[in-house]
Amino acid sequence: MTALLPRRGLAQILALIVILAVDRVVSPQFFDLRLQDGRLFGSLIDVLNRGTPVALLSLGMVLVIATRGIDLSVGAVMAISGAIAASLADSHSLTVVLAAALGAGLICGLWNGFLVAVLGMQPIVATLILMVAGRGIAQLITEGRIVTFSSPDLVWLGNGSILGLPVPVAIALGMLILTGTVVRASALGLLIEATGGNARASELAGVGTRAMILAVYVWCGVCAGLAGVIAAADIMGADANNAGLWLELDAILAVVIGGTSLFGGRFSLVLAVLGALIIQTMNTGILLSGYPPEFNLLVKAVVVLAVLLLQSPKLSGVAGVVTRLRRTKA
Amino acid sequence: MENSPDPAASLLEVRGISKSFGAVRALQEVDFTLRAGEIHALLGENGAGKSTLIKVITGVFPRDAGIVRISGEEVAPRSAKAALQTGIATVYQEVNLLPNLSVAQNLFLDRQPMRFGIVREGEMRRRAKTLLADFGLDIDVSAPLGNYSVAVQHVTAIARAVDLSARVLILDEPTASLDRHEVEILFGIMRQLAKRGIGIVFVSHFLDQVYEISDRITVLRNGRLVGERETASLSRLELIRMMLGRELAETTSARASAGAQKTREVCASFENYGKAGYVAPFNLELRHGEVVGLAGLLGSGRTETARLVFGAERADCGQARVEGTPVRLQSPRDGVRHGFGYCAEERKTDGIVAELTVRENIVLALQAKRGLHRPLSRREQDEIAGRYVKMLDIRPPDPERPVGLLSGGNQQKVLLARWLATTPRLLVLDEPTRGIDVGAHAEIIRLIRELCDDGLALLVISSELDEIVTYSDRVVVLRDRAHVEELAGEDIDVGSILAAIAADGASIAHEGRA
Fold first, then answer.
1. Is the pLDDT of residue B490 over 90?
2. Where are the domains of chain B?
3. What is the ipTM of this complex?
4. Is the CB of residue A280 less than 8 Å from the CB of residue A172?
5. Where do the DSSP E strands lie in A82-220?
6. Which residue from A minimizes the CA distance to B355?
7. B195 touching A, CB under 8 A?
8. Which of A190, A213, A267 has the highest number of chain B CBs within 10 A, making it the mutation to test binding with B?
9. Cβ–Cβ of B335/A190 closer than 8 Å?
10. Which residues contact A153 (CB under 8 A, 6 or more apart)?
11. CATH homologous superfamily of B10-247
12. Residue A214: C-alpha distances to residues A114, A188, A268, B233 (Å)
């Protein structure tokens, strides 16, 4: 269970504390919490709430990246599932809406997994296909409009509260626990790490590497589907053009900040989610500071660099890159 | 041809070449002489220094000592391109041309006929056509090179080299991926070029082809020159002795155990099992409590046999049986399910998962065999890993250390532990002692015997004939991707293995027995 507990997550926790402290300086009320109508309000809760889509995406993404893959299509999959959820919301029960939206995510994941695991395509190219086509599919579903809905069930999913927590946050927490349990209580975690660490060797040891790869893309699709539903429920509508736009990059960033290497192998679900929170804490801080949001990207880049440097004691990461470059030249 | 080398006729002279990589001495004072108009085979087992020698001659690697002369003139090319300008061209097994460009573009790459800065496509195609016609090739030169067979690509590469006025042509394993007919065509071209006075260096591990085409042979072993001989006066046995470095006098190596005879139960059997272009169909019986050694030269089909037996490669003919029951071995998973284990030759790429711990590496195959839904608890993992770390004396005895940080011998033990943890009935070991230190070497050999005494069936590949003789109850000898001989009991000694490897197609009286 070492990879579930953030034992090696010191750099990430440190980074989060520093950013929180900066946020506190920028906005003195940052840590204020108040209870109103049985729901907590405050900047911290906002961070959790806004961070939910990326946190959900990173739960799937971290598994994909652990197998040495990548999924660029998650933003587009969010748009698809959001469009489906919004279109069905006012005419069907929440169960049907969720089944359809998550089913769509699952099918998208199957498609990606098929391309990568069965046809052997490079993950970055394979998922690029759906990244481009997915948004088109979403626009076909919404017929180019922004579809709004008023179904109270779905609206609750985005704006309601459970035990004081916003529903999206509770869902993300539930998914983290579910994924962690499935991955670490079964042998899945070990076999995924082995596949990502050395697929050839794992295959020869009898590991069904194809099945592993297929499974992580499917799970990534389901997580993206869920993130799409929550994003739609949040704004009570689906905007095929902008839902989940560029979020695949935030999700990848979250995973990398969480210390999982793009070369596959060891992964940590908790740290990936922590990565997503670090990103959101920054976003919120910049918004609160009153600086134009354009600064967001720049600050994000600096913080990412800082976290990555913190992760590599004695800058061994830099040394590693240099030797790797030298080796490829030789 | 003269026996005493005539310096006037020597086209390429290499004298006293040495090359080290760190502490490893890849070449030590190697001499090599190529005459104009001869086909000269350069032979040696893995790690003998053939590729290093070629790369030093062509300037890919800088040399530490020694000189290279072409037609008596000293040269010191700094790159393959510079070597080309001095008249040395190399064609590698993996053709180093651009498959996406047309045949004509490949032939005239870097020197296209130009007029006013524009490539004259028509002119280029016409010249390409004429050039290839010399080599008996009539193909559409405007089609991408990648559309053609490897044979055509080889000929194109050779044609380009010759047209660049190469006087020395180095062919590195040119026939490895060619079929019999294509090899004939290539040999025809080689003879024709030799007649024109070009000197050809032919690197190959197909001895039949070496005898068919070459005039002289130079053998390297462990980075040293073993000798240079006329092909016509060098017997196969003598050649293989030169390559493997065994004196026939020392053939009666002591056998550790004679083992009880023949009454053992068959564990797995393979009948007429094979795959076209991979290994010729073979019959093989593996019995409980018996070690079968696979002997043969590099490229003779040993690893291929091992992969077929384990299921890492699919056979296209024959029948496999486990304990008498017909089975299909389509993937490593099938092999594992039937109780097989396979330690591959390349530990780093095909064996260990470097960043995972010793514990995780040891339980990997067992976990894969049990399936996802039956995970080994951490306590079970600790128990299994601890047991094997102790039993095999894996050092350092820390199951939580990433396996990539262990020495080669200890990594090999971890891989053995991985398979032993699955309680296999058959273990296939491909070069289990390669690249590990002397102490671990002896331990692994002792282990092989012990496992065998415990009733395991073992199939072991090794290039060390002494080693094979020591632990094998039977030895299967391979040559040119076919099983040619099976030795058992008293017949197993280094001499008879060498003789079986060496026997040429014409004089195998005992092949019927095999």
1. no
2. 10-247, 248-339+425-514, 352-423
3. 0.85
4. no
5. 147-148, 161-162, 165-166
6. A197
7. no
8. A190
9. no
10. A89, A93, A94, A97
11. P-loop containing nucleotide triphosphate hydrolases (3.40.50.300)
12. 7, 12, 19, 60
